[in-house]
């Protein structure tokens, strides 16, 4: 009984500490995976988008504003980041812009209401479902700019069941679908074409909207907080975006699962009291290394191909998630 109680307590503590960092996360948050979109043969990071895949009347005038870079943040175990850069469209500076949603180019004015980033619910590649509000968002950035006063900007919005928009004129809609937001403008970390100086931004979410039903999260980061401003010599590098969760309660369901053996040599057996809808396995840097949708309450996973080390396994039961540490030997 004493041994069982110790194991029970350990499971609670591990679940709490790991859930603080590993609730719902953005796919490909470290920008290690890239793909060629059929639309105009544009190369983008998986799950992330820029001008090359925009919709709207003037989408044909936009070029891609992202590329893979080997400049990575300090301490990274990855080999890539994303470089975001402005372009000139008919003499107008188009700020470098990246989103997990989709861009729309519907106006020739930089601040026109037809220009916006949005969640496209009808296309899974252009939305990120979420069921709870994170406490904060952490992002590594390297912003090289000609100006010491102009600012780049990031915005993350948790919203309800709608195609939410960040509009170029500074407004957002539909306003009644706002749940919470995290916003930060920041000055350069070095001069244009200068050193690769990285900094980690941590931005809290504020529950500043009328909606209490979180369904999606929309993230945008741009080389200038004001549309049409800045220089085409500016660029912005981004690496390792992480959503931070700090749960203030224990979900009794978290302990209704058994993972064995742990440490793991080849296979991990999972037995739970409820049906597991999805399983995600992350390395300790937040990179997703395995995903599946078993729709069962017991299964055996072949993990023989994973390198030795510690991992986090997240079991999604639909109404709640359980995250635990596993060790591969």
Largest sheet: 6 strands, mixed
Kindly, what is the distance between the CA atoms of the first and last residues, rounded to a whole number of angstroms? 29 Å
- What is the name of the CATH class of the largest domain? Mainly Beta
Q: Provide the gyration radius in Å.
A: 21 Å
Report strand %: 35-45%
Number of helices: 1
CATH architecture classification of the largest domain: Sandwich
Give the helices and strands as they follow along the chain. HEEEEEEEEEEEEEEEEEEEEEEEEE
Q: Number of DSSP strands?
A: 25
Mean pLDDT: 87
Query: What percent of the residues sit in helical stretches (DSSP H or I)?
Result: under 10%
In the residues, how many domains can be counted?
Answer: 2
CATH topology of the largest domain: Jelly Rolls
Structural class: mainly beta
Overall, the morphology is globular
CATH superfamily of the largest domain: BT2081, beta-jelly-roll domain
Low-confidence stretches: 1-21, 248-253
Q: Could you walk me through the main structural features you see in this protein, from its secondary elements to its overall organization?
A:
By secondary structure, the chain is mainly beta. The chain has two domains: 98 residues, Sandwich (Immunoglobulin-like); 211 residues, Jelly Rolls (Sandwich). Helices cover 5% and strands 41% of the residues. It is built from one helix and 25 strands. Strands 3, 4, 10, 15, 16 and 18 form a six-stranded mixed beta sheet that branches. The radius of gyration is 21 Å and the shape is globular. The two termini are 29 Å apart. The N terminus is likely disordered.
